[in-house]
Amino acid sequence: MNMRNIILLFLLIVGWTSVVYAQNEQEKLEVTGIVTDAKNEPLVGVNVTAKNIPGFGAITDIDGRYKIKIPNYSYLVFSYVGFDKQEVFVKDKKNINIVMTETKATAIDEVVITGTGAQKKLTMTGAVTTVDVYGYVTYKGIRDA
């Protein structure tokens, strides 16, 4: 091969790779938006991910804003502790604002851990010892059922 053919081959390869790269970039869509709760307060730290596509994710900032690049025709999944997970189909939308709803089952009963298992504090009978983080110990007397 002479030098002219080598240069021509090199230019063809460079041109082909730039076309392939440009097509891959066109298939990705930059989506932005704000995530709030029912009181219209911004939520900080909401996970925003592309469903079933590893490596595509973001979290909301202090103002509840996010920005993520995902492939067209994907689902965005919004998840946050204490709130229901939401999925949104992204076709060609560039701005998606989400209002997260609180999970119904957020109440936790008071539980006492005993040597034989856990019991609700309401049904607990007998002496209970409480140890806090600083090492202080308090004793409570026997409770009536």
Description:
The chain is of the alpha+beta class and 145 residues long. It has two domains: 28-99, Immunoglobulin-like (Sandwich), CATH 2.60.40; 111-140, no CATH class. It contains one helix and eleven strands, in the order H-E-E-E-E-E-E-E-E-E-E-E. It has one helix at 3-27; strands at 28-36, 47-50, 57-59, 65-71, 74-79, 86-90, 98-99, 111-114, 117-120, 128-131, 137-140. The strands form four sheets. It has a four-stranded antiparallel sheet, with no helix packed on it. Strand 2 (47-50) and strand 3 (57-59) form a beta hairpin. It is elongated. The mean pLDDT is 76.
What's the number of helices? 1
**Would you identify the regions where 5 or more consecutive residues have pLDDT less than 50?**
none
Known CATH architecture of the largest domain: Sandwich
| N-C termini distance | 97 Å
- Name the CATH class of the largest domain: Mainly Beta
Number of structural units classed as domains: 2
* Radius of gyration, taken over Cα atoms and rounded to an integer in Å: 28 Å
Overall 3D shape: elongated
Strand content: 35-45%
Q: Per CATH, what is the topology of the largest domain?
A: Immunoglobulin-like
Mean pLDDT, all residues: 76
| Strand order of the biggest β-sheet | 3-2-5-6
Number of strands: 11
**What is the ordering of alpha helices and beta strands?**
HEEEEEEEEEEE
Largest sheet: 4 strands, antiparallel
The percent range for helix content is 10-25%
